[in-house]
Every structure is written in structure tokens, then in C-alpha cells.
Amino acid sequence: MLTNLHLLRSVSAIGMAIGAVVTTIATVQANPTLPTNGNTTSARPSLVNRTSKPAVNSNSKKTASAPPIDTVSGAAETALVEHLIANNVTFYGAYWCDHCQKQKSLFGAAAAAKLLYIECAADGEKSQRQLCKEKNIQMFPTWVINGKYFTGSKDLQEIAKLTGYKGVMNFKYRK
Q1: Closest by alpha carbon to 115, among 145, 81, 139, 146?
Q2: Nearest to 143 by CA among 96, 87, 95, 78
Q3: Which pairs count as long-range contacts for 159-163, CB under 8 Å and 24+ apart, including other chains?
Q4: Are strands 142-145 and 117-119 parallel, antiparallel or unpaired?
Q5: For the CA atoms of the chain, what is the radius of gyration?
Q6: What is the pLDDT of residues 79-115, one digit of tens each?
Q7: pTM attached to this predicted model
Q8: DSSP tag of 69
Q9: What are the beta bridge partners of residue 145?
Q10: Angle at which helices 98-107 and 75-86 pack, to 10 degrees?
Q11: Among candidate residues 113, 101, 88, 159, the one with its CA nearest the CA of residue 171
């Protein structure tokens, strides 16, 4: 009988702890004006990638880079990237952002390497952190198309539509 009482109290304590976590998450999600990254606030719902940033040794001058892309570009992906380049479409992201990596993988390795990609992580390879601050980039990925900001990962069909691309659209990968 005593064992069952201890078990019941333990289960109850675990349930209360889970409830507190869920309540905190719901509060943050329901209030889009709460800080999204510790430095800024947003008046719109956050699409911020909540992936943990890697620990960085502040004494180190090393730069970090994303893992290699393992998907293969096709003719449609390459043609879309050429259209994006010709129209100065810019992709802002961070090497540690899972959504940014998935976005790049939709293009395939060869086409993704040609994207007008701006690295926003301060410790990222070829970081352009100051430009990201000047452009007020607060979420990753962010696409800038004709001066308009589009946040979150996009399917290639959607990018094609947003940019007025009329070429071949038999893209290999879907979001």
C-alpha cells in the first residue's frame, strides 16, 4: 500500500511538471510579442527555427559550416536557381538552422551552391551578420524577393510562383 502511494505521488509530480512545460510553451506560442530570440520582439507569429545553436567558444576564431547537402540537382532546380540569381532573389539563413538545410536540399547540392545565400550566424563561414542586422532578418530561412520578405521554408513550386518563374517545374524534391 505504501509503495502504491509513493508511485501515485511520483506520477502526479511528473504530470504537474509536464503540465507546467506545456503551459509555458502554449503561453509563448499564443503571445507573438514575447521575445523570439532574446534580443528582439515580433508583432507576428514566430517562425523562428528553434533548433539549438551549437556551443561556441568565444575565444575561438573558428568558423562553422553546415553539413554537406546530399541531394542531387536536376535541370529544373538548376534553371530555377539561375532565374533566382537573375532576379537578385536572396536567401538568408544560418548554418545551424535545420529548416535552412532542408530548404537547400530541395535544390540539390549543385544548384544550392549557386544560390545567393547570406550566412547570418556570427560564427558561420563567410558570415555577413552585419548585413543581416541591417536588413532586419529575424527568422530563418528568409527569402527576399522584389524587396519583400518571405519567412519559413518554401516548396520550390512556391518559390517559382513568388518569383514569376515560368520554366520547367518538374522538381525532384518536395517540402
Answers
A1: 81
A2: 87
A3: 159/80, 159/84, 159/89, 160/80, 160/83, 163/83, 163/84, 163/87, 163/89
A4: unpaired
A5: 21
A6: 999 999 999 999 999 999 999 999 999 999 999 999 9
A7: 0.64
A8: P
A9: 148
A10: 110
A11: 159
Q: Which three cell numbers stand for residue 157?
A: 513550386
Element (H, E) at 28: helix 2-30
C-alpha cell at position 103: 530548404
CA atoms within 13 A on the CB side of 13: 6
Bridge partner list, 140: none
Q: Which helix (H) or strand (E) holds 100?
A: helix 98-107
- What are 87's three cell numbers? 532576379
Determine how β-strand 90-93 pairs with β-strand 142-145.
antiparallel
As given in the structure block, the three cell numbers for residue 50 are: 528553434
